[in-house]
Every structure is written in C-alpha cells, then in structure tokens.
Amino acid sequence: MPCSYGAITQVGDCSKVKNTDWESTEKDPILYNSRKKRTNDHLVTATTNTNGGPTELDTFLPQDNSNTNGVTKYKVTKGNDLEAANTEFDPFKNRQNDHPTTNLNTLTHLLKASLGTGILSMPAAFQAAGLALGIFSTILVSIICTHCAYILVTSAHELYKRAHKTKMSFADVAEEACLRGPKWARGFAGPIRQLVLVGLFVTYFMTCSCYAVIIARNFNYVIDYYVGYTTEIRVTIAALLVPIILLVYVPNLKYLAPVSMIANVFMGIGLGITFYYLVTDVPPVSERNLVADISTYPVFFSITIFAIEAIGVVMPLENHMATPQHFVGLCGVLNQGMSGVTLVYMVIGFFGYLKYGDQVEGSITLNLPKEAYAAQIVNILIALAVYGTFGLQFYVCLEIAWDGIKKRFQENARIAEYTLRTIMAVSKVPLQTIIL
C-alpha cells in the first residue's frame, strides 16, 4: 500500500521509513547507509511518465516495485513539484482590478498618449530630414519605440509567472529582472529600480508642465486676435489651474477613458482641419529636399522620439487591462495603436513640409492664417486635446509618488492621495514660470 510523507509518496512497505529528512533516516541504519551510498555514487535519477502521469524520483534502485534490502522506491506527484507549480501559475486569471479597462479603452489611452503635441512639430522634423529620409526614419523610430515597449511587456509577462505576481510597474520589471538574472546583476536591482522611477517621474512631470504652457499659448493665440493686445500667458496658466486640479482628481484610468476619447476626437478634428490647409495648393515635390543636410538629422530624431515614445504609460495601461495578454501580439493593442500613430505622423510631417518648406514653424498650427475661423477652431481644439492628455501623463507621476508614500498613510489613504494630487498639480505653476 502506498503512503505519503509531504510531497513524497512511498510505493511499498511504509514501515521502513518514518520521515524523509536525513535526521529521521539515521534511525534506520539500512535506509541511511543505502541513501548515503546512492547519493555519493550519484545514482539518484529522475524519470517522467510519458503518459502524463506523475514525475517519478527514483532515489533507490532497482526501478521495479520490489524492495531490496529494505530499500523503498518513492514518487513525487507533479502537483507538489515547485517548478511545475511555477509554470502552471496564470497571472492573468489571478489578476484583480477594481476597474479593469477593455482593449478599446486601452487603445484609446495609448493613442492619446502617443498623439500628443509632438505631432504638430513633425513638419519641422521632416524639414530637418527631407521628404524621403523623413518617411524612412519615422518608420525606423516607430519600430524601435514599439519594439522596446514590446520587450518590456513580454518580459513582465514572463516575470509574472516566475515571481507569482499579477502586475508590475516599469520599475518592478527592471528590479525583478536583475534579481532573477545573472549573479553580477543582482546587486544592481535596487539602484536600477530607483533610476527608472526618477527618470520616469522627471520626464512626465516636466511633460505635464510643458503641456500647461502649450494649452495657454493655444488659447492666447485666439484671445489675442480678438482683444487686440497680447495677453500675459502667466495669467492664462493661473486661470487653468482649477480645471487642471479637477482633471487630476479623476480617480483611475477607467474614468479617465471618456476624457481621453473626447480628447482624441478633438485632436482628430484639429488635425483634419490642419490637413485640409496642408493639401491645398501644395507645390511640387521637386521644390523640397528629399534628403536634408546630415547636420540637421539629429534634430529630426529628437523631435520624432519626443512625439512617438510613450514608454512610461505602457505598464500602467497593461496593469489595468481586463485581458493583458491582448496588449502584445501581431494584432495586439500595442501594434494597432503604434501603426496608426506612425501613419498619422508621416502624413502630417510629409505634407506640412511639402506645403510650407523652410518657412515651417515649430508647431504647424502657427503657419495657419490667424484670421481664419477654421484656424482658430484648430487652436482651441488642440488646446482641449492637450488638456485631456494632461490627465494621462499626470497619472504616471502620481503612481510613482503615491507608491513611495502610501504605506505611511494607511489610515487616511484617500485624504492623503488627493492631497498629493493637489500639491503636484499646484507645484507645476512655479515650474511653468521657469519654462517661460
């Protein structure tokens, strides 16, 4: 009759073994000497049942069901095997989100994060690269940015299984990869985590500050035309503080999805009107450079990378998905979003430079006729679209800051979180003054 000792099932007479530990085995000289001899001779073997049965650890020979000199054969069931348990853990089925986002919600957020104000500078980027080289280089930059995001997410999915976790931040992935990597990298886990957090926080905090300035300037573009004098941009930024605070009070990404969707609509309409101006009375391609001077090529990369990359929002978006496995893949959310973004960037950049040539401005909307109602609508819509994007960029900073202090405010977590949101929103005003 078989009997069990923890994860080990004995096949044969149970009276010979009291425990699987070496200390207990010493009480039985026959078993102890046999185990010692087999271990020293490296005769411990493992076989797997090809019919899907349990994995068998043959500690002692022979490999039949007989007992020889009191020696017993054991088998370890697969359900109790630690390695098997690791491979069977499904992080997606075990993930719990209070407000999970759908694939469409996630795609909307991704488009909004990528289709930011940088797209308005793509004509200037094409001026620095040329029409032909600009198209090729935009595709190249997009592939690199998408591939980096793909590696990040697929690495996270593998680390979920190894670490038995259902979600990780960008910093968590970096730290866990070092801890489970080669020995020389394990000591860098902590510093790498902090480096990622600091880099992301500074990047997106500064981005939010720049966005507030862009919103104010787009509104002033229209206001100045009607009032007849130049409005102080700092006054406009101060007036925008209350709407910005209300936006950052949106509790999570699920409730922020409608804001992002509306912002996408505004950006789409604004770009549509802008595109109408770009394709009207365009000069021949022969009047523009197909390949620009190599000295201006770095300018193209700086503008395009700023416009396309959205690595900071990748993991927050994946963590809140109801079906995170759909984020990557050939037709996954990531590839769908970045394919559309790349196409729009190339079209705006190509026709913007083709239309205005060396007269192209840093933002293509500044080339539109100021007195035209359509151009004024474009600037208002772009300002509202950037305002909608502000919340998504702010969410990255908020997650980093809140994760660092939330353990200290477990009793009044809600009050502490919204106080932090307010402080972060208000603190951008002095920084915006420095930018100006």
From TrEMBL:
The chain crosses the membrane at residues 131-153, 195-214, 226-248, 255-277, 297-315, 327-353, 373-398. This is Amino acid transporter transmembrane domain-containing protein. It is a multi-pass membrane protein. GO terms for molecular function: L-amino acid transmembrane transporter activity. It is found in: Membrane. It comes from Acanthoscelides obtectus (Bean weevil). Keywords: Membrane, Transmembrane, Transmembrane helix. GO terms for cellular component: vacuolar membrane. Residues 100-418 form the Amino acid transporter transmembrane domain. Pfam families: Aa_trans.
